[in-house]
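user: can you give me the structure for this one chain? C-alpha cells are fine.
assistant: on it. calling the predictor now.
[tool input]
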Amino acid sequence: MPPSSRSPLFALAVSAGFVLVFVFGFLAWQSPPRMPFPDGRGDLSAIDQMNTPAITDIIPLLYSSLTIAPAEPTFSYIDDANNLTRLELPKKPRYKKKLGRDVLILDLETRQLPSTEDFKRGEFHWRKLNHVSAGVFNHYTYALAHGYDYKFIRAAEFEDRHATWIKPSALANHINDYKFIVFMDADATFRFTHLPVEWMLNYWKIEPHHSITMALDPWDPSLPETNADRFNRTLTNTGFMIVQNNANTQGILKAWHECPDDVRYQGCSEWKGPRFHEQSAFGEYIRYDYEKYIKELPCAEANGYPGVTQSHCEGRFVRHYWFNKFRIKEDFADNMMNAITLPLQRIFAENTNGVIYEQNKNVIY
C-alpha cells in the first residue's frame, strides 16, 4: 500500500508512541536514585545525591521550639527520679543574646571515628555506634542546634607524652578566633541539647576575667588523696572546659603546654605519661599561678553521671562517663527523641490539620 493511502489512525498511533517513549525516557532521567536501606547492601553515598534537606538544616529546625533564650529567667527539667526541677538565673545575667559562631564546640582526637570505617563499607548502623562516635555526634548536634561553630581536630600523637596533652596547644591555636571554646572529651555529653551555652555562662556567673572554667572531680573524705593534688586539693577535670578569649588565656595555655619540659615547673615531667596526664599537671602547677583566672565548678554541675554518689557528681548540665560509657549513646538518643516527639505531640494536642476527628456516635453510618 502506498504511503499516501495509510490510515490516519496509524499515523496517530505512531505519533503517540514517540510521545510515550519521550515521556518515560524523561521521567527515568529525572527520577532520583533509589534510596538504599541501611542494612549494608546499599551505597550510602547515594543519599547525598537526593534532593532532600541537609541534616545541618534539619537539626536547628528540630530544636527551634525547644531551645530557651540565653537570659530565660528559669529552666525546668524532669530529673532521673522523674521529679520536676526548676533552676533560676542570677539577677542581671551578662549574656542576653546568642553568641552564635563566636562559640566553638571542639572535639580533639588522635584517631578517626570508629564508625567511619563502617560507613565507608556501607555498614553503618545506629546499633553499632560506640561511645566515641556517639559523644562526638552529641557535640556536633549541640553546635548545629544553637548555631555555634564546630571543629573535629585530628591531632598528631606525641612522641614523649600521653595523647591527652594535645589539649593545651589545640586550644591556644584556635581561641583567638572565638570568644569562647567549649571543649569536651568524647565520653562527655551535653545533658540538654536545647540548653544554650549562654544560659550556662549566666548560671555559673562566668565573668570576663575567667580564662578557663572546669568542674571539680569527685572527692571522698574517707580517701582524701584520691583525685587530689599534693596539697590534698581536689583536681579539676579537663574533660569539659570553657575557655574564654581574654588577655590571660594564651599565657595560661602556653604555661600548661610547656609544663612537662621542666623549665618553669620542675617536676612537671612526672605527668607526661602517668594518670591523670595534663589534668594532674594543671592541678599540681598551673592553677596555683593563675588562680584568679580559673573558675572551678561543683562536680555535681558538669561532671559525672547518674548513680555517682561522691560529691553528688551526677552531671546536672554536662555528664562525663568515666565508666558505663554505653550510656553516652542513651543520652544522645534521649535528646534526639525529645526533639522529634515534641512537635508530634503538639500536632495531637493542638489538632493541627484536623488529625483528630470526633466520633460523637458509635454507629455505622
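assistant: here you go. The chain has one domain: 53-349. Residues 211 and 249 are 5 Å apart (CA to CA).
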